[in-house]
Amino acid sequence: MYMDKRHVYNSGIIGNCAYLAHIQKDTNVSWLCWPSFDSSFIFGSLLDATKGGRFSIQPANEYSSKQYYIENTNVLRTEITTADGSYRITDFAPRFRQYERYFKPLMFIRKIEPLDNRPRIRVVCDPVSAYGQRSFTKYRGSNHVEFGNGIEQLRLTTNVPISHFFGEESFVLSETKYLVLTYGQPLEAPLERTVEHFLRETIGYWRTWIKHATISSFYQAAVIRSALALKIHQYEDTGAIIAAGTTSLPEHPGSGRNWDYRYCWLRDSYYVITALNHIGQFEEMEQYANYITNITHVDTGRLQPLYGINGQIELTEHILDDLDGYQGNKPVRIGNQAYEHIQNDVYGQAMIALLPLYTDYRFVFNERSDAGRWVDYILQKIEKTMDEKDAGIWEFRNFANHHCYSNLFQWAGSSAACKIGRTIGDQQMVDKAAALMNRAAQYIEACYDAERQVYTNAASSPHLDASTLQLIMMHYLDPASERARNHLAALERELKTPQGLFYRYLHSDDFGKPKSTFLICAFWYVEALACVGRVDEAVATFERLLTYGNHLMLFSEDIDESNGSQWGNFPQAYSHVGLMNAAYRISMKLDRPIFIG
């Protein structure tokens, strides 16, 4: 596994479902957006080392470091060893039950403990705002440092001597030190006792959450870490789950494919709901389903591929020319123009994602009394858009087509509507949905290349696309059929690398030919192998894919085939969703026992 210590991928994340932060192995906080996921960063050195601010706890001389999570938590530890001694930093975002609700403040806590001898350290805390365009004025308090810019207020409460933050000298770490950075509301409580209490409670919360999960024994540790990573990508206020906490990390050096992923992609909702359902995390699944329901009930004419975490419709894309970009890769984008795209798979995605609300007996059915009206609304959208060309799952910006993947989800959404119709006893709904399934199937079959025995990415197109692996997983193709096996074999020949990685496609798009593989496609491939009965190959491929995680088993969006380096936004929630779903699919084939907490 290739790893460069300068890479953002050489970092861990913490979060509490209100915010996310990246901590590098060098102790610096390279990414933290406040007050919410899609706000400006207050620390953003991953996109500009000069304008991105800094929050580091580093020794005065050369050092080595290691980083790990406290087992089964999102509490991160970084240990630094120097010639003078060693110390440990525990970073966490408080999260636990208090007063019959979740306590998840905009509070970032760092605990520094000496481990050996008397290391000298230097603590630097210099936040910024407006994506590095504005700085904060620093004020000295009795036991805190105040940061203000006339609009926002931050406070660093600490037992480190306050004068240290107004000079350049290091100090000897001879006792435990605490740093509590807050946004808006300051910490008005005993420092040491409060931090230790919050730490115990936060560790307890995460361990209880994992104990209550349903996770098979197949690579359980990897699934646990992916589940923990996915959980902190959920914005609990609304239930939205973002694709990633970062923006503008390129899919490949110099590619220009630098996107803002701090939004919720409706078109990926099926995969997320499936992953949460597999691990039995019902509360998160219901919150996300409610977010989708709220989105679909606001009829603006058509559903968008993505929305803001509060359901925002307009996500206007801007380029920040003043920022250097990750390792010099420009442009840096905020917002995402893809919200304007036509992606007709979203209606089927929404229908399938919300299917459990009407067929899962854990939901109280009389709370879903609007089923008929809502399903009819989605079916009308599927019917209206069936004959349209769209941008497809990969959001092509300059051309449209009748994409096989879009029609597949129209087919699958109509199938879900059939199930809902039978559940609520609505034969008219069943008949309408069945007719739409047949229409969608005609479009899918128009993508079949009989000579090559493969479904192409779109009607009248010769190009292959990894998204058509879903034809097998969604059971449009019988996994036991010769057609499914031939389709998979053709995709393997063209899109698979020797390492088991998978390209989305290899034809040119708006930005040329893709130069990196897309990790979730490789996990889809694992699922497809398991579906067609090639279970040993599925297991071997899954094991190889695990080597592309970083030192904390966090996964990016893209992998460079040539050297295994990670690219794209990180960690990518949907890469972790792909891992979770692939592990579940294999475990079911292996008939592995399920551990239930």
From TrEMBL:
<dbReference type="Pfam" id="PF19291">
    <property type="entry name" value="TREH_N"/>
</dbReference>
<dbReference type="InterPro" id="IPR045582">
    <property type="entry name" value="Trehalase-like_N"/>
</dbReference>
<feature type="domain" description="Trehalase-like N-terminal">
    <location>
        <begin position="13"/>
        <end position="82"/>
    </location>
</feature>
<dbReference type="InterPro" id="IPR012341">
    <property type="entry name" value="6hp_glycosidase-like_sf"/>
</dbReference>
<dbReference type="GO" id="GO:0004553">
    <property type="term" value="F:hydrolase activity, hydrolyzing O-glycosyl compounds"/>
</dbReference>
<protein>
    <submittedName>
        <fullName>Glucoamylase (Glucan-1,4-alpha-glucosidase), GH15 family</fullName>
    </submittedName>
</protein>
<dbReference type="InterPro" id="IPR011613">
    <property type="entry name" value="GH15-like"/>
</dbReference>
<feature type="domain" description="GH15-like">
    <location>
        <begin position="219"/>
        <end position="584"/>
    </location>
</feature>
<dbReference type="InterPro" id="IPR008928">
    <property type="entry name" value="6-hairpin_glycosidase_sf"/>
</dbReference>
<dbReference type="Pfam" id="PF00723">
    <property type="entry name" value="Glyco_hydro_15"/>
</dbReference>
<dbReference type="GO" id="GO:0005975">
    <property type="term" value="P:carbohydrate metabolic process"/>
</dbReference>
